[in-house]
Amino acid sequence: MTYNRHGYEISLSALQKLRQGIHYEAYHTMGSHRTVINGMWGTGFVVFAQDALGVSVIGEFNDWNGDNCLMHRQQDSDFFALFLPGVEVGAKYRYEIRTRDGEKRILSDPYGRLWDKDGVCSLVADEVQFPWEDAAWMEQRSLNKQDHAGFSVYETSVFSLLGDASVFSRLKKRGFTHVALCDIRDDERIFSVSRRAEGDEFRIREVINSLHKEGIGVLAKGFAITGERLEYKEIRNYYICNLLYWLEEFHLDGVIISDLAEALYLDYGKQDGEWKPNIYGGNENLEAVEVIKHGNSIAKKRDENVLLLADLDAIWPQVTDLLEDGGLGFDYRYDTDFTKSFLTYLKTDPYFRSGNHEALTERMIYTYCDRFIKAFPGEALDRLWEDLPGSEADRFATIKAGYAYIVMMPGKTLSGFEVPEDRKEAFYRMEADCHKLRSEHPALGAADEDMDNFHWINCFSRNDCMVSFLRKSGHLGDTLMGIANFANAPKQDFCVGVPLEGKYEIVFLSDDTAYGGSNRGRGSRFETTEKECDGFSYSVTLPVEPLQLIMLRYIPYTEEELLKFAVEKAEEIRRQLEEEAREKARKMSVLLQKNKWSK
User: Fold this and answer.
1) E-assigned strands of 510-547?
2) CATH code linked to domain 152-334
3) Across the beta sheet with 503-509, what order do the strands follow?
4) Which CATH superfamily is domain 2-123 in?
5) Which of 153, 176, 313, 470 could form a disulfide with 414 if both were Cys (CB 3.0 to 4.6 A apart)?
6) Each residue's pLDDT tens digit, 107-133
């Protein structure tokens, strides 16, 4: 910025980048910034107002009268700038825009970082100098050494993490690798403090810093792209700049882009006549697609290890494919269909669950079409506990079995599951063990995106409300079997087919006594028998309790055990042959005796 007789000006190079839509650090230029010009402290303002005849800054400092605070048009662009001496941090302001048809519009600052308690007026913000202490985490991230095999995300409010230092270690103990902060921004603004204090920018950094020091990554939720006015490169630049601002200035490890269906489809939520087709006659918003691809491309170029998640409640191809392959370039996308159907299933009385059995199985038809994250955010889980059927014990067993089923199925997990206070400790223990199992077994984590990793054993037991499945990796000893019983009835001698002869050891029970349940089966081993079941030559028989998920680890027979079995088999065959020989001899003796008397 420079100061001349016109006041405050954008440098020519910055202006060119802004007009081309490639000024990725425009937040240093746009908005309001405290600065010194010719020895005078004050605030510089820069705003983009397309097709405006003129723009003024209005605020408490000029009694909301913009007649004497006209901003200066920069070159022949739609960018306007002005320096006002004496305007302090915390001053309320807005922009008064005069259109070419003589109307006046009042606009808050799109690049504003602070807002008044009503969320209407922008506030002049101080430049934040935060003492980051997460150098070790950021270095680890830059070296791409973060573990995404057990990638699991807990969604919560940033303000619920303030004031209690122990909450960060508790999240680590619960097995979460990342936290998604669901309320650090609002609407289309870069930062909003409606209903919040001015120090929140600093406190949000404190939370992120503390999570990083605990070894937990941080994602931010709530970024959105509106489909309006995206034909302007300057507007598209705003969205990209907004994304980078949060990633870089707040040390975020990733972002969740929300409401993508509304951005990508021109006719989303609209009636005939309320939208216009694109230049090819389709309903795709080509400008929104360009913004998304451009933003994801730049974010990855600046740091290839940041995570980009798409909250997309619509059919759209190649969301997580690479940009060079025609995709949108996201790392993961929300599996919203599974979220809705599975929660509906859990809320259904077990007696009627057989009518919606597809809620357990149908996602495997499409799960490898994109890199899905099984997302169960807070808003989806609202009143879940109250809406579950049965007694409190039944509800708790249902939530535990449901959560375990989500974690053990293919795909990463984002959740905001909570239970009543008196059951939290037991639930958190189960959470931790679920995540530990995923991180320790490649079949559940590292090999998660391999189509050969998952195999249904039985997904057709609709009336029993049960499914069984295999999770596999390249190592034979890392084969896991899961059995889920969502009926409120036990199966004492449940027979399940298995592809491999050996032993199967219970490594997880959702209704274990350690989790407030009534079962003590962990560690129990069951040997296979040569009994055909579920299309396999071998099977295992074990008890399965109501509302329970069991995970069993395959243990191959040792050479000694196989030799023992071979000896036992040989002995059995010898005894059988010996018995057959004796029977044959007996029959021959009888025959000879008959022949003797007949003579």
Assistant:
1) 525-527, 538-544
2) 3.20.20.80
3) 454-458, 466-471, 480-485, 548-555, 503-509, 525-527
4) Immunoglobulins (2.60.40.10)
5) 153
6) 999 998 888 877 789 999 887 789 999
